[in-house]
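Page 47, continued from p. 46.
Same chain as before, 141 aa.
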Amino acid sequence: MRAKCLLILLLLLGVVGCATAVSPTATPVAPTAGPIVPTETAVPPQVIHETPTLPTSTQNPTAIPTVTATTPPVPTATPHPMTPFTIDGLRQQAFPGGVIQVGALLAEEAAFSRYAISYPRDSRPITGTCKMPVMVRVSLG
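Result:
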């Protein structure tokens, strides 16, 4: 309760402090040479209105740009960057043939035997495994 009263008191002091204005100090004015005599009729100030001037026959008119019809460029198809790696793209490439070499027997199961294999591709060997049915016998050599 005391804090609430203190807060209200501070707010009131702030409002009262802001409400009182400090009057500016008057600066002394030097007396004029003679008394100021008001005139009976006041002369209204002159207002000058500028009107835009229109071009005359002596001025050169501004050239109006002309619009010329041009034919739009024909859009061309941009090939997709992955096109060489699609099925159609791979079919169009020539791959040099290589011999698949069957390596060591890795596992023998009931119906299949798993072998290590390799074949050349772009002067690098590609390796992997291959499962073959047991009825097919491979001579390692």
